[in-house]
Amino acid sequence: MACNSATCQSGCYRDDNDKLDDQFPLPAPAPATVPNHRQQTTNGVSPDGDSNDSILCVKCKLNQPMAVDGNIGLFCGDCFRSNLYGKFRFSVTSNALISPSDNVLVAFSGGPSSRVALQFVHEMQMKAQKNFDASRDRSLPVFGVGVAFIDESLIVPVPADEFDKAIEEMRFVVSNLAPPIKQFYVVPTESIYSSDSDDGRNRLKELLTGVSDITGREDLLEHLRMLALQKVALENGYTKILLGTCTSRIACHVLEATVKGQGYSLAADIQYVDARWEIPVILPLRDCLAQELHTLCSLDSLKTLEVLNGHNSGINALITSFVKLLQEENPSRESTIVRTAGKLTPFHFNRMPEVDDCNIRLASQRRQKKYNLKPNESLPPESFCRICNSPLKKADVKSCKMEDGKMSAEVFRDTCCRSCQFQILPKDISAVEHFHSLLPLQMVARAEYNNLGEDKDGLLREQIQDCLLSDTEDGT
Amino acid sequence: MEGETAKPAKGRVCTICNQRRAALKRPKTLEQICRECFYAVFEQEIHGVIVENQLFKPGERVAIGASGGKDSTVLAYVLSELNRRHNYGLDLFLLSVDEGITGYRDDSLETVKRNEIQYGLPLKVVSYKELYGWTMDEIVKLIGLKNNCTFCGVFRRQALDRGAALLKVDKLVTGHNADDIAETVLLNILRGDIARLSRCTSITTGEDGPIPRCKPFKYTYEKEIFTYAYFKRLDYFSTECIYSPNAYRGFAREFIKDLERIRPRAILDIIKSGEDFRISTSTKMPEQGNCERCGYISSQKWCKACVLLEGLNRGLPKLGIGRSRGVNNEPGKNTKQAKGVESIQSKQCGNLDF
Asked: Which ranges carry the tRNA(Ile)-lysidine/2-thiocytidine synthase N-terminal domain (chain B) (predicted)?
């Protein structure tokens, strides 16, 4: 596919299949996965591979590159692995995602992305441990790692024996990664309700059946998943939640958000850091493609479990297949999409909150280069959607006052984003009240908390305005 | 009509007036409504867009870019209707571009000429031949069926502006509909073009230039335009260009149609997203200047049309196609460039074709 734009940055090449008269015939195009500078070597190679010796890994120039999906890749196995790990490590260090005092909870679904995320975090932790053991003053603690699996079997039914087997396998995977020992939590979604589990199960079921739009139901389940992760992290003393979200997933999310009219809040979801939650969420695999993660899993025989991952439907499914098609036509399309969306202005919460403890700060500064930590000039948004927690555009927020601390259905609806209003909330206003009563407390309490926090900050700022020399907190 | 006018079940009445029998399922909302109510909401929505965005001022001269296709035909009809009904006080003109494509444009121009009489709007036709000395037929004969859309697109954009200047109008309106704009938003994301992404959803563009352009159909669905033209039995031309028969069958277009099937509102949501994207104003935008040769707005030394024209006249038709611009960089390297990597094509008819 050629995209026919003079300003196109996707690096795609028009295929010359159409045999129309061309005054300047071009040489046969190179296979899409092989960049141009290797064209001459690959063109001379017969498919039998008798002269395969001439193709070498672009990095070490010693070994033969490994095959990726039937094509000859760029790297040999070792270089591929270190390149991928390098991307992970770079995003962690350059954005200060993990500091030595952290306790990181890895969200583990059993799929390739989170499996690689877990593996990489483990490798990083092992290295930190080695340094710790070798250092004399032992001033840098080693960050802790835990693993959480969100059990959605109540909503996406899985046969009990298969489920138990999968859990056992995951437990095995996690226990094999020690030392240091990593806790493994199996968290049912209904745990977001503080009440006893039977009641929680019923409320969750009723909540989800109340959503008629299949895309909306799927998205609501995803929001609930985040709540469950937050809860287990908070209860067990974790300071970061690590997701295995990769470039390909983010590319899909960019289009999903665009199609659902969430253009304003999109930038909040696709950064390395998302600290709008009580426990900040980090995305260190943001620069890795799903295909690379797959390859690593098969290369290192990392066991993945697809049983528990329900397939998406509705709009999300349509977008997944669209992006897959685009990616097949042009292997850099997913990266281009993410790069485009990466140019949108992030929010103030898309960077690590400053830690107050100066000991920790000093210690972490010793090993981390925080050169990507430019403060964003953007002001905090007024409020967040109660359901999806996405920042709301000021113009879209209707001023709403609660009467006697109780919230009417209309007011509640106005505190949700347009997209959630459409695809998650019941159309009938009389049903909204019941829907509201089924939501977990974290969602119901969200808006008040957020509004309060920011109003207070703004007020304080206003009062000391005359002594402030710059517009940002850290004086740059 | 691809079957979207569902056969009304017996006795089903319009959900708006509750009186007449429903004749169609409205593509935007899936409401079952009667013909009269459809005309009313369709026209009312466009009127609302015009008023809300203050597209026109009383006494303005406005040219309607008319190709003879369904969008511009419906636009001409509805605008002249609304102008009369709501006393906009506009002087409306039809402005057509004759690309010189035998078997396509000559036929569609006949349609526009009939519209001139039917709606009583004066028509001005500007032709590539008189503006540039080349017809599309001649260009295609020289360069073949590759990149011909680049020439046509660049020339048309300028031809419309020149025609509008000849008519001494204050504004130019085009029939771009909601589907077109949603498609452009997606394409700009897929291409990584943040500068275009930030401005492709504006309803009025070129306000700093001599003649601003606007799109009154920004929120109007293509399907509704079809439906309107069908029920009103408007006289429009529906053949595709012979040089690019599949110009509008891009991947993105297919995707939007699929989306619309699942959730009609998605088209409006994409436009809403496009308007809401947080694009910092410090994002590098190309600087606007004027072409040293013809004076037309251009970010380069020469405008694209002049570069392409120069190539045609010098027998180097590849000049200006691809990423680097020969004339604007170093004229000495033209031959190399013409032979060079022809990898990334200029924007064609706005689609990702395979």
From this structure: 62-245
Q: Does A460 touch chain B (CB under 8 A)?
A: no
Same domain, B272 and B292: no
B342 touches chain A (CB under 8 A): yes
Average pLDDT over chain A, rounded to an integer: 76
Whether residue A20 and residue B144 make contact (CB cut-off 8 A), yes or no, is yes
Is ipTM over 0.95?
Answer: no
Residues B177 and B238 in one domain: yes
Residue B161 pLDDT exceeds 60: yes
- How remote is the C-alpha of A99 from its chain's centroid? 19
* Spatial distance between the Cα atoms of B120 and B326, rounded to a whole number of angstroms: 46
| Closest chain A residue to the Cα of B140, Cα to Cα | A21
Same domain, B93 and B175: yes
Question: Domain check: are B63 and B196 in the same one?
Answer: yes
Amino acid at site A52: N
- Structural domains in chain B (count): 2
Residues B301 and B206 in one domain: no
- On whether both B143 and B78 belong to a single domain, the answer is yes
Residue A101 near residue A86, CB atoms below 8 Å: no
- pLDDT higher than threshold 50 for residue B352: no
pLDDT value at A372 more than 60: no
Whether B175 is covered by a domain: the verdict is yes
Residues B206 and B321 placed together within one structural domain of the fold: no
Indicate the residue type of A342.
G
CA distance A14 to chain B (A): 6
**Hey, where are the domains in chain A?**
1-84, 95-378, 394-467
Tokens linked to B131: 């503006």
pLDDT tens by residue, B172-186: 999 999 999 999 999
More confident residue, B273 or A425: B273
Residues of chain A contacting B191 with CB distance shorter than 8 Å: 3, 5, 7-10, 336, 340
Residue B240: give the domain boundaries. 46-276
B180 is in an annotated binding site: yes
Among left, alpha and beta (phi > 0; psi -120 to 50; other), residue B133 is: left
Confidence at A355, pLDDT banded by 50, 70, 90: low
Provide the CATH topology of domain A95-378.
Answer: Rossmann fold (3.40.50)
**Contacts across the A-B interface (CB distance below 8 Å):** 159
Taking phi over 0 as left and psi of -120 to 50 as alpha, with beta for the rest, B100 belongs to: left
In this complex, the residue of A13, A259, A325 whose CB is nearest that of residue B259 is A259
The number of residues in chain B equals 354
- pLDDT-derived band at A401, boundaries 50, 70, 90: low
A419 touches chain B (CB under 8 A): yes
Confidence at residue B56, expressed as pLDDT on a 0 to 100 scale: 92
Chain A positions in Cβ-Cβ contact with residue B197 (cut-off 8 Å): 340
Mean pLDDT computed over B45-60: 93
B270 interaction partners in chain A (CB closer than 8 Å): 258-259, 261
Tell me the whole-structure pTM to 2 decimals: 0.81
Q: Do B251 and A333 touch (CB under 8 A)?
A: no
Contact list, B353 vs chain A (CB under 8 Å): 1-2, 4
CATH at residue B105: 3.40.50.620
The answer to whether A271 faces chain B, any CB pair under 8 Å, is: no
Average pLDDT over residues B65-72: 90
Q: Do A3 and B272 touch (CB under 8 A)?
A: no
Question: Do both B228 and B158 map to the same domain?
Answer: yes
pLDDT above 60: residue B117: yes
If contacts are CB pairs under 8 Å, which of residues 249-288 in chain B contact chain A?
251, 255, 258-259, 262-263, 265-266, 268-270, 272-280, 283
Q: What is the mean pLDDT of residues A378-394?
A: 76
Q: What is the dihedral of CA B159, B164, B167, B173, to 10 degrees?
A: 130
Give the model's pLDDT for residue A41: 40
CB contact under 8 Å between A339 and B192, yes or no, is: yes
The mean pLDDT value for B30-45 works out to: 93
The answer to the question of residue B220 being in a domain is: yes
Q: How far apart are CA B178 and CA B223, in angstroms?
A: 10
A220 close to A208: Cβ distance less than 8 angstroms: yes
Q: Is residue B38 part of a domain?
A: no
Please count the CA atoms within 13 angstroms of the CA of A418 that sit on its side-chain side. Answer: 24
pLDDT band at B271 (very low <50, low <70, confident <90, very high): very high
Report whether pLDDT(B283) > 80.
no
From chain A, the residues in CB contact with B269 under 8 A are 258-261, 419
